[in-house]
Amino acid sequence: MDDFSSVADMPSVPLIPMEQYYRKLGFDSFELPSDLAAAFDHYYGLDDTLKERFWRAAYWVNHAVSIFVSSASASHVALVQAIEALMPAESNEVCPACGKPKGDGPTAAFQKFVDKYASGVPPKDHRDFYSVRSSLTHGRGLHRWDRDGFSFSPIAMSEPWAALLVVGVARALRAVR
């Protein structure tokens, strides 16, 4: 057998808009995002430093997905880490007069990055996403699903960070420059 089997008579894989693809919970059919080819082109055009940032972010997204059932809190923190892995390095420049770092702190830098790449998600949700991460990271809270149990109720499924996960992280992964 020297050749692959012909696929000429097979239907092509359906392509759906990226926003729709990444908002789906589970799947009932095999579909791909309509911009997958452009995403591959973008990835292969990255330099090695940006590819490394991409893979760190992909690691944290995978970890967030794999730990979600055990801990929505840990999953949330991992999603923030995925976004932070994509962000440009912080400036090391300091003010000569006061000695404090110039530029944005981590919270402001995160919000600016997310505001830029997670269009369609209200800015209040961006702020909430990072402040929830801070509470979780510093032991001041737990995600409500960890406290009260998982639910498919409309209220539970409307967590603002869920929208940020599925669309914002996907856009940010593609926007690394």
Measured between the Cα atoms of the first and last residue, the distance is 43 Å
- Spatial order of the strands forming the largest sheet: 1-2
Number of strands: 2
Give the CA-based shape: globular
SSE string, helices as H and strands as E: EHEHHHHHHHH
SS content category: mainly alpha
Which consecutive residue ranges, at least 5 long each, have pLDDT under 50?
153-158
Total of domains: 1
Strand content: under 5%
How many helices? 9
Largest sheet, described in full? 2 strands, parallel
Into which percent range does the helicity of residues fall?
Answer: 55-70%
Radius of gyration: 19 Å
What is the residue-averaged pLDDT?
79
Give a brief description.
The chain is mostly helical. Helix content is 58%, strand content 2%.
Which features would summarize this protein structure in a list?
single chain, two-stranded parallel sheet, 177 residues, 2% strand, mainly alpha, globular
Give an overview of the whole structure:
The protein has 177 residues and is mostly helical. It has one domain. Helix content is 58%, strand content 2%. The chain is built from nine helices and two strands; from the N terminus they run βαβαααααααα. Helix 3 (48-67) runs antiparallel to helix 4, helix 4 (72-86) runs parallel beside helix 9 (160-175) and helix 5 (106-117) packs across helix 6. The longest helix has 20 residues, at 48-67. The chain is globular. The N and C termini lie far apart (43 Å).
What are the SSEs and their pairings?
Elements: E1 15-16, H1 18-23, E2 32-33, H2 36-44, H3 48-67, H4 72-86, H5 106-117, H6 123-137, H7 144-148, H8 154-157, H9 160-175
Parallel strand pairs: 1-2
Helix pairs in contact: 3-4, 4-6, 4-9, 5-6
